[in-house]
Structure formats: structure tokens, C-alpha cells
Amino acid sequence: MCVTVVGIPALRVSPSSISFHRKGDAMTARKALCASIQTPPFERRFPNWRAVLAPLLLLPALCVAHAPSSQECSEGADFIRNAALARDHGMSEHQFMQRIHDDLELIKSFPPELRWFVQDEEDAQLLVSAASAVFQQPKEAAAHHADFLRTCIARADDDTPITSPRNAI
Fold first, then answer.
1. Out of the domains of life, which is the source (predicted)?
2. In whole angstroms, what is the distance from residue 7 CA to residue 86 CA?
3. Do 93 and 28 belong together in one domain?
4. Sign of the torsion angle spanned by Cα atoms 40, 44, 45, 50
5. E strand spans, the chain
6. pLDDT by residue (tens digit) across 54-90?
7. Which distant-in-sequence residues (6+ apart) come within 8 Å of 7 by Cβ?
8. Disulfide: which of 40, 111, 116, 129 matches 168 by Cβ 3.0-4.6 Å?
9. For residue 63, which phi and psi values (nearest 5 degrees)?
10. Are residues 162 and 104 in the same domain?
11. Closest C-alpha to 127, from 102, 104, 153
């Protein structure tokens, strides 16, 4: 509570010291004391919290999906072609998908800039959906290679997120 006694020296409270002052500064001291009482503890402890929060709120807008290069698209297409060749040589869909998921977990343990094709979740989804299509919609290995390359390059050009397997291939 803020109380000012006129004519009697009052107590001046500041963050660094406590001292007495005369009648002329009573109103200034009262305002400062009232302001410090009304300010929430969090705001007294972190007076610039708004300056820190603003950039943090903008951070998701800065996090954009990785757009694969033409080299990465070519290597990804080779991987899908090899998946079709593995299918032709008797590997089951369950075996292949289990292996690709295990590989993706291992790849995610590395920093994104050191990874091969799968630098973010959308890359992983594109690769898994294309590999699944190899077994669900069997075609020649070259056709799967061409489909993946076309989809990947289109994604690199407009950076459209892949949200379902139907969008991928």
C-alpha cells in the first residue's frame, strides 16, 4: 500500500538503496513505490520479456521445409529404382518398409545439414510414400524412378508440402 505523510520525511525505495527524502520528492517516491507494487514479479525480474518473445513467435515462420536439389532428387530416384529391383528379386514390402524406417531413424540422429536426402519430415514422407508405391502399385523400376524424379523436382521448384502418399506419386 502506498502512504504519503505530508511534512514528515518519507522512505524512498529504489532497487539499489533505501534512503529518506524531503516533502518535495514524496509524490515521485509514492509513484515509484506504487508502480513497483503493481508490477507483477515476472515483469520486474524480466522487464524485456516482450523483446525476447517477439522473435520467438516469428521463429516458426522462418522454419521452412528443405527443398531438395536436383542431385538429391536424382539420388532419391535411384533409391526408389533400387527398391523396385529389390521387390523384383523377392524382397517383401514388410521387410523393405521395416528397413527403410530403421534407416530413417538412424539418419535422424545426425544434424539435418549432414543428412543425405531426408533432412526434414517432409523428405522422409516423400521417400516412404514412394517406396510404398513401389510395392502397392508395381511397375517397372525405370517407371518408378521417373515418377519419383518428376515429383521430387516439382516439389523442389514450388516447395509444395507432401501431405499424403497420393500427392507423392
1. Bacteria
2. 95
3. no
4. positive
5. 10-13, 18-21
6. 666 555 544 555 577 888 889 999 999 999 999 999 9
7. 23
8. 129
9. -85, 100
10. yes
11. 104
- 110 and 45, same structural domain? no
Cα 162 from Cα 146, distance rounded (Å): 18
Rounded to whole angstroms, the Cα distance separating 65 from 152 reads 13
Helix, strand, coil % in the chain, rounded to nearest 5: 65, 5, 30
| Residue 1 resides in a domain | no
Which of 83, 98, 73 shows the shortest CA–CA distance to 133? 83
- Look at the pTM and tell me if it is higher than 0.70: no
Q: How many domains is the chain built from?
A: 2
Question: Phi first, then psi: what are they for 108, rounded to 5°?
Answer: -70, -15
| Residues 33 and 110 placed together within one structural domain of the fold | no
Pair (54, 83) in one structural domain: no
Q: 113: burial class by Cβ within 10 Å (0-12, 13-18, 19+)?
A: exposed
Q: Please tell me whether residues 113 and 148 are part of one structural domain.
A: yes
Please identify which residue in the block is written with the cell numbers 518398409: 97
In this structure, the answer to whether residues 112 and 155 fall within a common structural domain is: yes
